[in-house]
Amino acid sequence: MFSMSKENLKLYIKSRADEEVKKIIEEAESTAKKIIEEAESKAARIKDERLRRVKKEMDEKEKAGISFAKMDGRKMVMEVKEEFSKKAFSEVEKRLKSFSSSKMDERYQDILMNLTIEATSNIDSKEIKISANKSDLDVLKRNIQTIRSTVSKMRGSEAEIEIDNKAIDTISGVIARSKDGKQIYNNTFEARLSRTFEELKGKFLTMLFEE
Amino acid sequence: MSLDIVELIEEEKRAEKTLEEAKKKADEIQENARKRAMEIVEKAQKDTFFQDFIDKRIREIDERKKMVLKQFEDECEKLAKKAEKNLSKVVDFALEKVLGV
Question: Which of A83, A172, B58, B69 can pair with A100 through a Cys bridge, CB separation 3.0 to 4.6 Å?
């Protein structure tokens, strides 16, 4: 070292400094590269996670959307069924009204008698009162003996059946009551129509939509 | 000889200054890398990356929903035709039940 000249020493200092500078910059660049690589790796993980989440959200959205569409569709089908069930009900009601206007028709009178006998037979009381609309009251009054004897025969004991002179508002048919009013059997067309559609709605729907 | 030492000291000072500058530059390189890294992560965190994918899936879902509804509409149409054809038969049957005949 002592043998080195001044110029050589200066060169040595400079080259040592240059080497150190090179090392510092290389280390900084290496660290910077690592920082960027880590960031890119983190960004990739974030993107993957986002994509996975978005895909899941979209799948759930699809599932819910299809589910709602099916619900709407089923509602539409139910509405069609309900519409035709109501149509059938209205048509039967219309036909009943038309039928009840044929008061003198023998078939009509037979049906009225049958409904009256059925209603009175369902009242477990000796004394029974029958209500009907104004025009049906005439038919019933004319046939009261037949009604009494038929019901008495069916029961095996005398039935005291009276006709209420106060007319009720109905298409046709009767309401039978026990004298104490505790038992009532509504056999008007309206009540029978409602009962029939309640009991047989399933059957009607099957018939309506069969091939 | 003393002049030579002074010159060498000067050379040493220049070397130290160069090193300081290099350290500053190194700090700058790392600081820039950190800023860039932050930008990369922030960009990844933004929701706009998958907008095209989302739009495409929404279009697909809408199409599938329309298809499902169309199937039900067709079914309703078929049901209505059958019911129109069978209505009078059902009315006759119901009427018999109501009249008890």
Answer: A172
Please name the residues between 5 and 34 in chain A that touch chain B, using a CB distance below 8 Å. 6, 9-10, 13-14, 16-18, 20-21, 24-25, 27-29, 31-33
Give domain limits for chain A: 1-100, 103-209
Q: How far is B67 from chain A (nearest CA, A)?
A: 9
B38 touches chain A (CB under 8 A): yes
pLDDT-derived band at A104 (thresholds 50, 70, 90) equals low
- pLDDT at residue number B45: 87
Confirm or reject contact between B87 and chain A (CB < 8 A): yes
- Could you tell me the two tokens for A68? 């709602």
CATH class of the region A103-209: alpha beta
Distance (Å) from the alpha carbon of A49 to chain B's nearest alpha carbon = 10
DSSP element (H, E) containing A128: strand A127-131
Can you give the pLDDT at residue B1?
Answer: 56
B61 closest CA partner among A60, A54, A73, A74: A60
Cβ atoms of A93 and A193 within 8 Å: the answer is yes
- Write the Ramachandran bin of A174: left for phi over 0, alpha for psi from -120 to 50, otherwise beta: beta
Give every CB contact of residue A202 below 8 A, 6+ residues apart in sequence. none
- Listed in sequence order, the DSSP H helices in chain A are 6-100, 106-121, 134-142, 144-155, 189-209
Q: How confident is the model at residue B47 (pLDDT cuts 50, 70, 90)?
A: low
Residues of B in contact with A64 (CB under 8 A): none
Give the mean model confidence (pLDDT) for residues B60-73: 98
Question: Taking a C-beta distance cutoff of 8 angstroms, is the pair B30, A28 a contact?
Answer: yes
